[in-house]
Structures are given as C-alpha cells and as structure tokens.
Write a structure and sequence with these properties.
Layout lengths: L2 H33 L6 H32 L4 H13 L18 H8 L3 H4 L6
Length: about 130
C-alpha cells in the first residue's frame, strides 16, 4: 500500500475543509467588519473570529481524524502500520500515543466497532509507545 497516498488522503480529508473554513471565516469577517460594521477594530474582530474558527476546526479534526485512522489502518499490515503511524505524526495528522490531544478525539459507536475489527497488533501501536 502506498503510505504517502494515505497521508495525502488524510491531509485532504481532515485538514482541507478545516483550513478552508478558517481562511473563509477570516475573509468574511474582515469584509463584514469593514463594510457592514465599519469598525475601527477590524484586526481585533478578525482575530477573535479566526480563534473561534480554529476552535470549531479542532472539533472537525477530532471527528474526522478518527474516520481517517479507521480507514487507513484497516488497509495495512503491521509493519506498514508502524511506518504510517510515524509518517502521520511527522505530517501533523495525528499526535503521538500518550499525547493529551488524543483525548479530544471523538469516537462514535460505529468508529469503535470499526476499530475493533482492525488487527489487534495494529491497535497496539496506539496503546503503547
């Protein structure tokens, strides 16, 4: 399996919509603050809007990264999974095992079911470092 393709699919699936959303919010807020509000504090308003958009984006990451993990790791051997795990951390797609940020992942019952169907040796990658 081509691991780079799985990483690219994850980046597109997880970060593509997230980055688009944050940038879009910044531009729309800038336009709104300048043209509708006619505010002198455009930079502050845009900064607040982008921070809120990033928080919403984090929720998106928390939900979609789980989908990607179930998809990607279900297609691999144990050796390939170790390599993908390292590449995904390097690409900023996932956090290392034990990271506090992993606690923000949103797992649905279906995600948990799909994850349990993955080879237990592959699941262990995410349980121990």
């Amino acid at each position: 399996m081509n691991l780079s393709k799985l990483i690219n699919k994850g980046l597109i699936m997880v970060y593509g919509p997230l980055v688009t959303f944050v940038v879009f919010c910044g531009f729309i807020t800038n336009w709104y603050a300048e043209n509708v509000l006619k505010s002198e504090k455009v930079d502050f308003i845009v900064m607040v809007a982008v921070i809120i958009a990033i928080c919403i984006g984090w929720l998106w990451w928390s939900y979609k990264v789980v989908k990607w993990k179930c998809f990607a790791f279900s297609k691999l051997t144990v050796d390939e999974s170790h390599k993908l795990y390292a590449k995904a951390i390097g690409a900023g797609l996932i956090w290392p095992t034990g990271s506090v940020f992993n606690k923000t992942e949103i797992w649905t019952k279906q995600d948990e079911k799909n994850w349990k169907e993955i080879n237990p040796e592959i699941r262990e990658i995410f349980e121990t470092e």
